[in-house]
Amino acid sequence: MAKTYDYLFKLLLIGDSGVGKTCLLFRFSEDAFNTTFISTIGIDFKIRTVDLDGKRIKLQIWDTAGQERFRTITTAYYRGAMGIMLVYDITNEKSFDNIRNWIRNIEENASADVERMVLGNKCDMNDQRQVSKERGEKVGGAC
């Protein structure tokens, strides 16, 4: 069977439980939004193929569980990742503070050249914002 893409990228979504990693993934892969919260058990993934500059790029996006009890399972998936998206909830200060711990996990378990991106999620709830845009950008620049 011939492959139907030019490039394959493995990407991870990491962050505390409840920050919206699964919703981000579902919106990107299915263009839908699910209002029901169901905590990810272990790890899940979706695939989406996009066209960019005349190339077909297959994105394999892994959604990791945020709970501590799944940490040893999910860190095994850091290996081979080309990009890691660290997600925090702008309405939850603790999820933002924990970004430092997630960065440490990346440094311990991922390749040194992995691309990183910090995503402040739940921006539609700006009236409940606890983390300023400036603070988020500062952490993103240091990541």
From TrEMBL:
Membrane topology note: Lipid-anchor
Reaction catalyzed: GTP + H2O = GDP + phosphate + H(+)
Residue ranges that the Swiss-Prot or TrEMBL entry lists as coiled coil: none
InterPro entries: P-loop_NTPase, Small_GTP-bd, Small_GTPase, Small_GTPase_Rab
The keyword DNA repair appears for this protein: no
Name of this protein: Ras-related protein Rab-13
One Gene Ontology cellular component annotation held by this UniProt entry: recycling endosome membrane
Main location (coarse class): membrane
Entry keywords, A to Z: Cell membrane, GTP-binding, Lipoprotein, Membrane, Nucleotide-binding, Prenylation, Protein transport, Transport
GO biological process: protein transport
GO molecular function: G protein activity; GTP binding
Enzyme class name: hydrolase
Location of the protein in the cell: Cell membrane; Cytoplasmic vesicle membrane; Recycling endosome membrane
EC number: 3.6.5.2
Annotated family: Belongs to the small GTPase superfamily. Rab family.
